[in-house]
Amino acid sequence: MSAVGTPVTRVDGPAKVTGAARYSAEISLPGMTYLAVVGATVASGRVTAIEADAARAAEGVLAVLTPEELPKIAAEPHLLPSLVGGPAPGESFFPMQDDVVQYAGQPVALVIAEEYEQAHHAASLVRISYQPTKSITTIEEGREQAYEAQRLFGGLMPARSERGDVEAGLAGADVRVEVAYKMAANHHNPIEAPSTVATWDGGNLTLYESTQGIRATQQTVAQLLGLPIARVRVITRFVGGGFGGKAMVWPNVTLTAMAARYVGRPVKLMLTRPQMFTSNGHREEQEQRIAIGAARDGRLTAIRHEKLSITSPFDDWAEPATGVSSQLYGCENFLGVHRLIKGNTMTPTFTRGPGESLGVFTLETAMDELAYQLAIDPVELRVRNHTPVDPFGNPWSSDGLVECLRLGAERFGWSERNPAPRTTRDGEWLVGTGVAAAAYPIAFFMPPQRARARIFADGSAIVQTSTQEFGTGVLTMATQVGADALGVALREMEFQAGDSDLPNSTAAVGSAGAGMVSSAVHAAGTALREQLIALAVSDEQSPLHGAGPGSVKVADGHLTSAERPGAVDTYRELLSRNHLSDAEALGMWRPPPLDTPHGLLTFGAQFAEVAVDPELGLVRVRRLNGAFAPGRVLNPLLAHSQLMGGMLWGMSQALLEGNHMDPRYGRWAETNLAEYLVPVNADAPEVRVDFVDVDDELVGPLGAKGVGEIGQVGAAAAIANAVFHATGRRIRSLPMAPELVMDPAVGGR
Amino acid sequence: MPLQINGRQHVVVLEPRVSLLDALREHLDLTGSKKGCDQGTCGSCTVWIDGRRVLACLTLAVAASGHEIVTIEGLADGDQLHPMQRAFIEYDAFQCGYCTSGQIMSAIKVIEEGNAGTDEDIGEFMSGNICRCAAYPNIRAAIRHVRDEAGGRS
Amino acid sequence: MRPLTYSRAADVQDAIALATANPASAFLAGGTTEVDLIRAGISRSEHLVDINELPLRGVEDLPDGGLHIGALARMSDVARTPRVVERYPAISRALLLGASEQLRNMASMGGNLRQRTRCAYLRDGVSPCNKREPGSGCAALDGFNRGHAILGTSEHCIATHPSDVAVALVAFDAVIRTVGPEGERAIPFDDFFLLPGDTPQLEHPIAPGELIVGIDVPGAPIARGSVYLKFRDRQSYEFALVSVAAAIEVDDNVVAGVRIAMGGIGTKPWRARRAETALVGSPPNETSFRHAAAVELAEAVVREHNAFKVELAQRAMVRGLVHSLNGRQS
């Protein structure tokens, strides 16, 4: 019986519901000390003096490190996404190497003390003087100096994409929509703060780290400290949420290792919630503009999509926002441009649904406006523009867009909708519904992925790779995949991860985690099964002796062959007869080449029902329905949770989340969970998730395309379109706060 | 100072400034209660003191001395999970698991307090526990299940 | 967190003596404000006097039909006290719409009244703030001031008072009872909250060592039909953008009595006396309500990001009055 595809509950469930699961700050080591980081309070300038005498004299303080005491790093960091598989610093900058301040919150001093309270109190006693210089921290301040970026993602991707003649396409259109949006910065805010425990044993460093990429952490820290990679071990049992904020390796990890070497004892760092707004990247403040032209029948003639955003002084970073709009619909003329402003913030980073989620917001709200201008049903308009191939003429590795739109519409009850805006009232509320298509790119930037499978004489088995569990359910899904590949019962299989000593797998970002890990695990389990089948058919004492290896099937540890009706061997007996205490195999999955002749998108469709109180500007999401085609669903229970969580992230992006810079100081205005709003239970409606089955033989042996991002993509657009349907008004900023949604016309009625 | 935790007396030397949360996590190796914000804004440190759910991050350990403290580690009876713990697994009411201890400590009380009558009530009275993975609908389903299950311990 | 000393008071006099002995002391009840602000480096308290064993938790009848609420009664308990729910539904609702159940289980009524503004510039420990460092200036005036007040402000401070229940209490003319080194006092609710003026660091007319022991809420039949509505970005666990406590009495088709107070828009819990005056004798309809709201907000002073509150507050006030008139609780 197949374990893959069944709704198995989480294998780490019991540990998580009893509090037994240990996260990185919960490692207890003899002689533990505590690190507190002092961050710069100005956004630009120089540190002119650090008075640390009071801090050094405070009770329990072991050391105060300033740039004078802190050793220099061995190599300059160069930003590269962790998915690529190498060192992955979050920014091409390392603090405390000199007196320069590049952004507020940048570490300027470290305090290490015996106790947590002592470290933080002493940190408050460090007095730092600055010579501030004029900072730029908002688009408004830097608009004049915006420039067109050449490459994004540390040089990995071109920043401009162009085909046809977009101006001619717009000029020749029967109907045009041109809109612009302002989008506030977002912060990941996992509930677990970035946490590190660093401990040295001679020249060997062990890090217990809250990361989405333990191998990326290992390589980055080794590079920055000038250590052989083999001397750095990273252990990550559980991560309390990442959402992209733990996908890259930020300076605090290496600083903790440096602090531990300095005091010669284990050091623990847990960032404070306010520090999380200036320590692990963010989704950048941005503006997007889109122009769409269409013929009267709805067929698109041109799309011009531009993004302007603010980056750090040292990196050309923008989440790519035009990848989906360039591909989702058939359209001959396209231009996508990313423009940047160098500002005094840290380098922004991946945030769930990186880039494309806001790109799709812009595209899909514009498509809604187009549908109204053309008087074509919004679902129908999208279906009409569906294309079976990508812009290069390559067929999709698997499709499903139209099926998602149709299934979603049916389950949502779309056909009952009166398309006229502002036609449904429920007491003080106006009710509206909206739709958006969803798509998210699949990128094969990662190197080959490996896993090891091992079976013991008693029939129990393990499969291992160096990934980590941060809520995706990878521990559970890899257990299912490993059990099936090897041919053992689920209860016999344990998946082990969370240790950089295990075989290589790359950081789990961009929804690639499940696909990469499951492919490697499948390869390892399959390799071991084939090894054992070969052993059985060559074993004279086996009932299967002489059977063709290809004829042998394994299930629940039992080997059978159509060529030997009635004959059964078992892994246990096979190992025991051959005096083997265990057997193991390494498996490798090599991703398709970057120039694979396939279009690579995961598709879905989002439907939302909202209620709007037009007097008070309140928006309540009543229903969210999503239909998705993510390829093979390894575990429907867990996939449902991932997609539901993504959809609620989209709701949050539409209605709640946004931070604001105070440009006078270059500091974020909202730096805690009371002011930076994420949804609470009362905000979350019931969510329906439906799957459209598509076979995808390209993306990996199991055909899983990933569910981490696609749920988030399009949800905000469906909500914004529903707000328009409810009220007849388009809101041009995110989040759609009450002051924007309040209808100026209804006052004083 | 003595601290009565999960029915057991612990004696620990702590400064008055140490929060109950840090006492549990850094001094008693009871790391099931989570530090999410240390500011009273996320609920992941929810524990029970004298039978009521409160936040351990804003409670000084010294002030909790002499009171009955229950943490997530005190719910299961050996290998026998509390019905709410089982329901959280069954309904997949968590993903990363970091807020889960606090969610469960609140969820049991929501039923005891009589605030689990409707989904709207559950949502409102569970809103002091932020789940960034947004497992909220599944959390409500787990609570409904325990509420409706005859003979549940809650 | 700074080093602290700690003592537990056995009775009220003990508490006052302990607090008076150390000028850097604070009373510790629920701790939800004090522990947070000490950790943030905003409160300078060095000694905490734990008053939780004092017998100040009850809710008792007053001879005029009102209630005396003990200062250490917890928000969650008061919210569910049947006499509060019956006589002052707005107080119960305001309590239940504040914070979260965990915080309501911890926070005391006295402590709630002494909670401090959520102004981010006070809490960041760095920006100019006349509350934190008198004379340093007010970063909020030209900063990100979406959450800030539009009534009762000064050129030195525009910080919003964050309490919900204080809004309901000020509507019903509550009186705060204290005991201090100089003896007992009764402070009318409106006088307990000082406008920032030139001295935003002074928030309450309360002496060192003076302890809130209870709140008297006078009997007020009108309060039985009172409502408390709270409007905010998310549906729960957030401070108000605007909130309103309202109660209305109609006699012979004119407004015979009305109580209105607002939260989220004032530097103190805002009793809308101008609106009340404008309404009495008017017909109870939306036109009158809208007019009264406009009268109350006429003197609003807005900044870059909070101008929307002028209109939002008026619509909220109208909504509150309509709901009270129609007997709707939410």
Helix content of chain A: 10-25%
For the termini of chain C, the CA-CA separation is 41 Å
The greatest inter-chain interface is formed by: A-B, 61 and 60 residues
Strand content of chain C: 15-25%
* Principal-axis shape of chain A: globular
Largest pleated sheet of chain C: 5 strands, antiparallel
Q: Portion of residues in helices of chain C?
A: 25-40%
Any idea what the CATH superfamily of the domain at 226-326 in chain C is called? CO dehydrogenase flavoprotein, C-terminal domain
The counted number of beta strands of chain C is 12
CATH architecture tag of the largest domain in chain A:
2-Layer Sandwich
Structural class of chain C: alpha+beta
Mean pLDDT of chain C comes to: 97
Oligomer: heterotrimer
Description:
The complex is a heterotrimer of chains A (749), B (154) and C (330). Chain A is globular, with a radius of gyration of 27 Å. Chain A has 749 residues and is α+β, with helices and mostly antiparallel strands. In chain A, β24 and β25 form a beta hairpin. Chain A has a 7-stranded mixed β-sheet, with helices on both faces. In chain A, strands 7, 10, 11, 16, 17, 18 and 33 form a 7-stranded mixed β-sheet that branches. The mean pLDDT of chain A is 96. In chain A, α6 crosses α7, α11 packs parallel to α12 and α14 crosses α15. By secondary structure, chain B is of the alpha+beta class. Chain B is 34% helix and 12% strand. Chain B is built from 6 helices and 5 strands; from the N terminus they run ββαββαβαααα. Chain C is α+β, with helices and mostly antiparallel strands. Chain C has 13 helices and 12 strands. Chain C has a 5-stranded antiparallel β-sheet. In chain C, strands 9-10-11-12 form a 4-stranded antiparallel β-sheet, with helices on both faces. Chain C has a 3-stranded parallel β-sheet with strand order 1-3-2, with helices on one face. In chain C, α5 runs antiparallel to α9, α11 runs antiparallel to α12 and α12 runs antiparallel to α13. The termini of chain C are far apart. Chains A and C meet through α3 of A and α13 of C.
